## 1
Amino acid sequence: MRIPRNHPRFESLRIREVLVKGLRNGIVAPEGLLAHGRGEAFDYLIGEKTGTAAGRAIEAAAAELLTAKSPVLSVNGNTAALVPGEVSTLASIIPAKVEVNLFHRSLEREKRIARLLRRYGVKDVLGVGGDASEKVKGISSRRKMVDPAGIGAADAVVVPLEDGDRAEALVRSGRKVIAVDLNPLSRTSQAASITIVDNVTRAFPGLVRIVTKLKRTRRSGLEKIVEGFDNKNNISMGLDEMMAYLKGWRLKA
Ligand code: PTJ
């Protein structure tokens, strides 16, 4: 469907169309549309913008990724459909590896996502088919299989639109987990080391911007940013921002 540019909900409708197209092209799982619906509802509650707390989390995540020895961006269907270019740019500027890791696993979809990412410039897409040969302990879903060259060897993993089990297991394994999740109450958000409560469509361009800016910062400066970040406090701050935004609506009524 062609959405008129002057439609007041243009961006939201555009994103929906991208996901529907992704579903038709075998990139997005049907469940991905439902997950997006939940995400959209939370996006409404934060005013569909990157708040101060999310901005802080993006800065801490950028610093974490720039100081990690072996950072990995984990990509699922929704992320591949929504921000393929930003995944590619971010991977090259950090630099980080890119691994396909699906909750609703299918070889066909893994291959399609890998092809899409390669088209956007990712040279080496990990985790496809038999390449995901290592098991992460404590995950019951098929997401447990990871690439030994990617998440298997990673010390920091970016997990957009994640399910709680894997986030918890990755944290337990000693890895730093950076979640992008619009729901601040999800198990993923609560378990992650750094939680970016923002739409992946804003968080990834934000990460690209801040990583580019911090790339020239000394390691000690980056470590200071990471050490000064408290995830629980930051999530609370984000919830306060959300409530203040909602209160604004109450006064309008
Ligand atoms: O491609 P697959 O097979 O790996 O499947 C991907 C989905 C998203 C279906 C799978 O990971 C899943 O079922 O996820 P959940 O458990 O529904 O969690 C998704 C979380 O992402 C929810 O908390 C949503 O609020 C949130 N979310 C949805 N859309 C966005 C989002 N967060 C950030 N940006 C979004 N655009």
## 2
Amino acid sequence: MLRCVNLSLSYRIPGPFWRKSTRVFAVNDVSITLPPRQTLALVGESGSGKSTTGRLLLGLETPDAGYVMLNGTRLPKPGTRRWQKLRKRLQLVYQSPLAALDARMKISDAVREPLAIHNIGTPQERALKVGAALEAVGLTLEQSSRYPHELSGGQVQRAVLARAMVTEPEVMVCDEPMSALDVSVQAQVMNTLLEMQKRMRMAILFISHDLRLVRQIAHEVAVMYLGRIVEQGPTELVLHRPLHPYTRALVSAVPVIGARGQQRIVLAGDPPDPSRPPNGCPFHPRCSLAVDRCRVDRPALRTSAEGQSVACHVAEIGAEASR
Ligand code: SF4
């Protein structure tokens, strides 16, 4: 079980000439839990803090505040020996499969490399593990003896998954893993990922802007806006009955087969400058439901009895969960 509590990460951006530097929050007070065999999808526009949250969960960034726990133990500081030992239990799958692999390394060698780095098994055991990982993702022996540029995009992404799974991680962060693939290949890679999860009890953080994929894979969804979670809950609830006006706009942009007269909600303007976030609710400049209170008072997350949380003053959540 991976859990992060009140995670925040900010950067200082130097101001021009005599002006002071400004502090920009990439992630602000984010708490999430990833149980084994579950998939949590993080969704939101570019720059909402999804990828940075994923990197913080893996210990690839050091938070300013908050902490990450793996099975009840706090993650040590990145770069330390204890942290390096934990690395094999936490893996990352990048957006661009070709960039994730060394172009000069054959696929089988690239899949074997993490075992050597983490000193796992004898050479014979490593060969068995590599064979099993390649078979699990559906790559043949012949394909594994090629270089990345000699394979299709879907095959390379499956090789990346084999490399990530060969150490049998407990948590995998998949950062837009399908965005560079054709729709038909996306389905194959998605099935591979689900199969791996079933077999290895792995928890997945699935970062995506594609709600069609999220609907297929995620048990829970968390929606991020300007570094904060604004809505979170079971996928069926959040995608079928979104409570936050921002989530409603995201969901309305996904065409539903057979839904006649589906109305798309077009958001006004661009996301605000993160170095000068609006007062009150950060979504208020784009929100058609904003009331006076929204301009001064930032809404806290409230959770319904069904487990759907929303940060909005006007959202009706029915009975609230008792705390
Ligand atoms: Fe819109 Fe106000 Fe809700 Fe923010 S708190 S989402 S501005 S209605």
## 3
Amino acid sequence: MKLVFATNNPHKLQEIKHLLNNSIELLCLSDIPCDDEIPENQETLEGNAAEKSFYIFDKYGLNCFADDTGLEIEALNGEPGVYSARYAGKERDSGKNMDLVLEKLSGTKNRKARFRTVISLIIDGHETQFEGIVDGEILEEKRGQTGFGYDPIFRPEESTSSFAEMTLEEKNKISHRGRAVQKLVEYLNHLKTD
Ligand code: IMP
């Protein structure tokens, strides 16, 4: 089955291709081709994921899915949440976003945080959502070189390493997106046999 993933983020594509089996041909936006600025105007991860997937389905009539992820920090009342990409400004600079988080948490004992991903899948116009969560903490400083976004300052509770100190395989096994994608893949596999 052909399925469009509404992204051109090479990190995400690589992560998800690792998890999908061969029966699904994964296309990205540049394959359709689509270079639109896809709207993300909602105030929840659920709303943004659905807005993106319906945009693609309505315009191209293709089965597709879109994801939206946020880092939710307990001591910051769930910030940066849906604003994770542009927390320190609209230039979407990961370094500045992490610096802002570290500054806001400076002197704060409660470092609890979680990544949450919502995937909105549309098959023949019918939407289903999947959620993946990984609990952890915000480190005192950046650690590691791999991954992207907030990976250097996030340590999942299952590990002593930050996400940026893990290989892609290690991160995928426990990550928010990995967990949401595993649910998506199980669902897709059932669709084929029903
Ligand atoms: P998006 O909705 O998946 O584009 O994620 C929004 C923002 O959350 C990204 O720009 C990153 O800053 C951050 N983010 C998403 N996924 C991850 C991840 O796996 N590791 C670290 N940061 C992430």
